Amino acid sequence: MTIPGETRAGRSKLNGAYSTTAVTASAGEDLVGLPMPQRPDTLYDLSRRTRVRRESGPRFPFPIPNGWFVVATADEIEPGRTKSLFYFGKDLVLFRGTDGTPYLFDAYCPHLGANLGVGGKVVDGSLQCPFHGWRFDGASGACVEVPYDDNPYIPKTATARSYPVVERNHMIWAWHHLERAEPTYEVPEVAEFHDDDWLPIVVKDFEIATCCQEMTENNVDWPHFMYVHGTPAIPEEEFHTDGHYKRTVGMNGNFVREGFGLGLGVLRVKGYTTFLSSTTPIDEENVHVRWIFTSPKSLGENAAEKASRSFTAAVSQDLPIWENKIFKDPPVLRPAEKAITEQRRWCQQFYSWPAGTNAKKR
Fold first, then answer.
1. Where do the domains of the chain lie, and which CATH numbers do they carry?
2. pTM for this one?
3. 231-281 pLDDT, tens per residue?
4. Which of 219, 276, 340, 286 is nearest to 70 (CA)?
């Protein structure tokens, strides 16, 4: 997530180094930066984005990270229904048991490879394959029934890959781990989303041709706020890490950003907004971003929507940078940019390097 580019009406909330001078441009115009123009339409219409990179080969030297990621909003899927998805470089099927519990599988049946999301049937807390009727337990993925066979033995290999799933903060989250290890931390509960003094949530979602690490590195790249977003000064922030957790504090304590692994963040701007961010890997080079906002009801019924527009307008300034840059390793950094080195070191704990590769851990 990034510092918002506020409208004039909202600048009293974010003053000093965090205020920006908004520059707008239509997608058909030449793109001139310093600062980058705000083009909110490009968030939702990929055809309007500026993409000039044509070199082939991978842009990033690391695999899809391990962690908790949103795979759907809670209201996207009803009990007894399925939904086909593509995240983590895989075809997936999300379904709710008849009691409403969500489950997530790799899409392909271990029997003969049918896609369980195309005609699969929810039976209580299990999913039945449309090809031969094999039925798989939602929590474990184990086959619990082969309806046409009297042999009671079912091999352990007859198991669909299932992912740990939690429903929290009005979202459905899945734990991805390249080596299938169990979760090592929890999805935080955002109390404001369930507080009667706060507005109903506003959800903004969009896809970006980048990766989780690049987006989260933006948070500690403080000089870019002046040159990309047009802030009058480079903000001064405190940056701390502790295991999977990180915390950034600015604006004399009124701006607090917490990170929980790669791709999960909670930002609180005191008296203005709280929002939850999930950056879900689609594959190694593309992500699906969901930002979930709320604001105090005392600010008016449209406050959360206004906050969401400010933040999304600002991130539209980052799109041309992210989608056309490469990852430099090692980078050429100035002493004042040491937080980028600290951030990259912190990120390493969230990767599993595939067996048999010579990938260098960075």
1. 8-59+188-350 (3.30.530.20), 67-176 (2.102.10.10)
2. 0.89
3. 888 787 899 999 999 999 998 899 999 999 999 999 999 999 999 999 999
4. 276
